Amino acid sequence: MVGKKKSRNASTQQQPSNRAGKNGAPYQESAGTDPAELHPDRLSSDLKSNLDRLKRDMGGSGDIVIREILARNFGRKVAFVYVDGLVDPTSVSEFAIETVLNEIKQFASEAELVEAWELERDAEEGRKEGEARYEAEDELEEDSHGGYRGITSEEDRKFLQQFKEKALAAGEIYQISDWSKLYLHLLSGDTLLFIDRIGSAVIASTKGGERRSVTEPESQTVIRGPREGFTESLRTNTALLRRKIKSPNLWLEEMQLGRVTQTDVGIMYIHGIVDEKNVDEVRKRLSVIDIDGVLESGYIEELLENTNKTIFPTIYHSERPDVIAASLLEGRIAILVDGTPFVLLLPSTFNMFFQAAEDYYNRFDVGSLIRFLRYFSFLIGLLLPSFYVAIIGFHQEMIPTSWLLKLAVQREGVPFPAFVEAFIMETVFEILREAGVRMPRSVGNTISIVGGLVLGQAAVEAGIVSPVVVIVVSLTAIASFVSPAYNIGIAARMLRFVMLIAASMFGIYGIACMLLILVLHLCSLKSLNVPYLAPYAPMIYPDMKDSMLRMPQDYMKKRPKLISRNNPVRFREGAMGNQQADRDENEPHQTQDPSEV
């Protein structure tokens, strides 16, 4: 509630109020007490005080633009505040400042304006002594954003309402009196409007600034399919997903994470398809994150995982809108972070890291063949150097005699055992690969390719390694690039060295033991309480239709069993057949003369 406004000639002494406070004790409030003094986190009714505090809190930053306007017919002074570079200049000038100036119909000379302002200020100082401008804390009215309006009188409330309705043409308008929320809007690209003698600010949505345009993603390229990828703008990314899924059931929940950065994070899912327990679990895990800053989705990826004691990625990420849209249709949850084009998907399974969007754009036989090659390439990249070391060191009887003699001749001048050879070449290739990634793009690929050829040839001629090791390491490197998900390839690269050590100590038996431990470890992993190896472990036969091989679309009638429990059906052949029959029945039948045929 807002207190009643007293007469201007009221006594300068205000009697203490006998109204009880929150705890039942009498509440004492002196005349002219500003709620900003009682609550430092709230705006003051004095325009100059608010602008001084804003300049002080922002450290006098040069990109903070303050535009003060004296409106004589309004009888008040207003000020626009925005951050240069975060706003759309057209929106600020045309829909905020220009519309306010157009409302000021009567202009006076500069001297008259200054004189009118001084007279108004003198009259205001006289009124401050005789009227109670604010009520107690419990009677201040909360606005829609949880702040307090801090309006002095019914006249000010009506004025502010008319001002928002007539003087501002922005699409979204808020009213806030809390400093923390005000700074969040200011640094998000909105424009603040301060009005003298009103203890709240009007927020006009003018977000803009320089943004990267929608381009083709570089990490997940396809031959056939959409060429658009996510950007660093959260709102652009949500718009790309809504273009794919035009359904009112596509829900978006937003929150801010990071005490300092206040990064916008969105949770996107399809209501009616997603498992509500998974959504509640994601909300719970995000709500307990207390960190200074979130600059990329990787900051919260580790905090969302069930466990970080694994080298395998348990959360899938992608920068392709079609991949995320398809996952949402399966019942998964997308987590979008402002400032990064990579969107997280929960829950994720091991099978997802070998699937690509292009598998569903080609025929099922082509997609199945390519997907099988990815699994085979993953095994080659993981086990080929280890098998070479194990066979050369422990199981020479497995090699044909003629080939064994050639290998013995090639290794005659090599001073190192097979394990040291493979370990040296693998380490050198990892260094070249990392150098190619970090160097400028124009020379990075050249360095990695030429460097590998030159160093490999030089190592063979110098007698440090044998030619077979160079071939094995090259095949391993090529196979590690086949996986569409880069992070699953990193896991294979790390495990490759572990397999090498096991093969050098125990041969093929060591490789078999490590594979057994690896499978047991994968079976123990979960992603958002969904088994990581599903549909292999546990074995779910209906979901096997879209695992290592891809069946035709009319065979995959149901969504993954452990992902979407509420609405499992996604392909309704009968309904489509009935619709086609209805169309055929409604179309006019045309007969043709056999002679024309």
UniProtKB/TrEMBL annotation:
Keyword annotations from UniProtKB, A to Z: Membrane, Transmembrane, Transmembrane helix
Biased composition (Polar residues): 9-20
Ranges annotated as biased composition (Basic and acidic residues): 122-135, 581-590
Pfam families membership: GerA (PF03323)
Residue ranges of the TM segments: 372-394, 443-460, 466-486, 498-522
Region (Disordered): 1-44, 122-151, 564-597
Keyword Transmembrane listed: yes
Family: Belongs to the GerABKA family.
Gene name of this polypeptide: gerKA_2
Keyword Ubl conjugation set for record: no
Protein name: Spore germination protein KA
